[in-house]
Amino acid sequence: MSATTQTDALVVEGLSGGYDRFDVVHDIAFRVGCGEAVALLGPNGAGKTTVLRAIMGLLRHRRGRIEIDGTDVVAAPPHRIARGLAAMVPEGRRLFVGQSVEDNLRLGGIRLRGDRARTEELLAGVFELFPVIERYRDREATALSGGEQQMVAIGRMMMADPALMLLDEPSLGLAPLAIADLSAALRRLREQDRSILLVEQRVDIALEVCDRIYVLSGGRIVDEGRASDMGAEGRALIDAYLG
Fold first, then answer.
1. How many helices (H) and strands (E) does the chain have?
2. Which pTM does this prediction carry?
C-alpha cells in the first residue's frame, strides 16, 4: 500500500479489529481515491460493517491506520469524523422517527447550521437528485416506501457534505424498481466526483456504479480489481466468494 496522496479520500492500512477481544477483520488494506467509487463486497459475516464502523470511529479497539481526506482518524471520536470527513447511510436507514422528510435532511446537515447558504444549496442538490422526496418534504419520513426512505437516508448523508460517503447495504430489502432508482442515484453521485465506499452483496450494482472492487471473505481482502476489467470469469469468482 502506497503512502497517502492528495488523491486519496480514504486510506486503510493494516486494520485489525472487532468486538471485545475478538478480531473480525484482519490486516485490511485498501483505498478510495478522491472522486472514486469503490465497492467492498462480501457475504454476511465477512466483516464489511465492521470496517465501516472502524472508519466512522465506532470501534475503539483496533490496530492499523485510517486516514480520511489526509486526516488520521484512528483515534478520533465519531463526532469529529462526522464533521465533514465522513458520513454514512447505515443498514436499515435509521431515519429519525416522527420527523418529516425535510427535518431528517436538515438534521443531517446540522454541522453547517451556521452557513445557511450552503445548507440551502445542499438541500436543493438533494431534491434535484431525488425529486420524489421534495414532493413529500412535509410528510413523516418513516411513512414513505422503502425506496423513498432510502432516498431520504442518502440525502441526509449528502447534507453533511462529507469528504467520504459510506453506504452499508443500501439495496437490502428494496423492490427491483427501487434498486434501479438507487443505482441511478449512485451513478449521479459518482458523476459529481463524490468519493464513495459502497458495501454491498449485489455484484451487479457494484459493477455498474463503482470504479474498483474489493472482495472481503473471512475478515480478509481476498480479491480486488477494476470493475471495467471484470468479465464473466471475474464475476463468477466474486459470486463464489459471496456464496
1. 9, 10
2. 0.89
